[in-house]
Write a structure and sequence with these properties.
OB fold (Dihydrolipoamide Acetyltransferase, E2P); BirA Bifunctional Protein, domain 2; 5-stranded mixed beta barrel; 17 helices; 22 strands
Amino acid sequence: METPSSPVVLDSLDGWHRSHSCGELTAAHAGQTVCLMGWVQYRRDHGGLIFIDLRDRQGLTQVVFSPELAPQAHQRAHHLRAEYVLAVRGEVRLRPADMHNPNLVTGEVEVYVQELKILATAKTPPFPIEDRVDVTEALRLKYRYLDLRRSSMTQNLLMRHRLTQAARTYLNSHAFVEVETPTLTKSTPEGARDFLVPSRLSPGMFYALPQSPQLFKQLLMCGGLDRYYQIARCFRDEDLRADRQPEFTQIDIEMAFVDEAGVMEMAEGLMAALIREALGKDISLPLPRLTYREAMGRFGSDKPDLRFGLELVDVTSIVQGSSFKLFAEAPLVKAIAVPGGGELSRKEIDDLTEMVKTYGATGLAWIKIRDDGWQSPIAKFLSPAEQDGLTQALQLQPGDIVFFQAASPAVVHAALGALRLRLAERFQLIDESQLALTWVTDFPLLEWDDEDKRWVAMHHPFTAPNDPQALVHNPASATARAYDLVLNGNEVGGGSIRIHDPETQRRMFAALGISPEEAQAKFGFLLEALSFGAPPHGGIAFGLDRLVMLLAGCRSIRDVIAFPKTQKGVCLMTEAPSTVAPRQLRELSLRVRETTPEG
């Protein structure tokens, strides 16, 4: 028999089979003999009985080692430590009534162990395997396989699994066909930088990892598939943040013989199915719709959070004759009134002023509405008529505060859109239990790139214009047959009706400054496919990572991806990216150039 100081002897399964998970047993199983397998969460030695909380991905069960019932198993239990892997056989017994744990499914029962197998020992983990763990994200990512054992991480991945299955079930029931598209493809200018893969068989040539399956799904429509979907892996070499990774997953969808209404109706049904699966909630359909112009005008954002008010109000006509020079000369003046916001301190206002400067604003004008008058450095510049006009337009009351931006529309909307969100957080105006969904439609087709001095596609070069003639005569006015689905201020899906005739596609390339020769070199296969009779088609892609993050109530998509990268694109666990052997580089006809600190 082992003693506490003797080494632990590992066992094999020897034909043992798990009869139940550690989150399954209830009072209905009392009296049954069961076999559980899992990890040691906690061990408590009460001087006689030894209690172990045994954990697997389904939950946790308390198992008990009694010296009278199973002396050998009890003796071995002295050696057990956190994260040891066990198999136990024993009898399910009801806990005493005053010892029930209402927080566990298994809280009414415990298993009295008759036999024990120690399947693996474990070093002391670098952090506790529990949900409330106060360690850096870097440490969690370095030991991600341990982090995944925590219940919250397990539940996030299980939700992700359920959502992908629900998406497949919904799309299969609507006659969609799941098709895999290539991972090694051609580098085409679609917006973000491509990840490039050198070809060994074609020295000096490169594949690109797909930023999306965009061109392939359009070719599938040309191929007569009618309805396609894919849970697609996508890659973009761009700067990272909390809701962006270099490799990510889309629920990618395309449909032939449809217009905007057809795609949006299908997408609403899919979103309803996903929310029902994730949260058990039903949403009201059809969803509200805002044009891009409306969204920017009222909320300062093309992905507005509709869970609270604080809408932007255009007061240009009220103050355009003001003796306050900034108001009088600005092309646009808008305001946000915050009911009861007059409690803000001057320091808080100064902090808000610094925040809006990061969006191009030169400052932040404000007025506090007091019972005895208006308090503000600019109040003296506003006439009684202007004050009355602002009071009516903004429905001002004593105790309120109002903020102004006077500048170009782009600056006004960017600054006040960001300020609106900051004020909602400050005054706790956001109901976190609410789901606010809306469509945003009719985006600008193109936007001007000051650096390259040319037009670029706001979505991608294959988005159909509402007016094809505008591509030639007035690109700045062209609007897109595009639509984004927004959830609580986050874009969770985006798509468009595609260009399906080669002449309009050539006009689009020309508007983007892509020469006929470059268009043929980069997109000749698409133009050729369109020339053989392409059906009208359109689609949408949902960002699966971001959607799971929002529905799981997480702050970062790294918490819903099994093995994510850091914000610098590094995997701390595998230490990728890494150097490779010189031989591998020679096989690819590549040589790494030494760089100086200056580049």
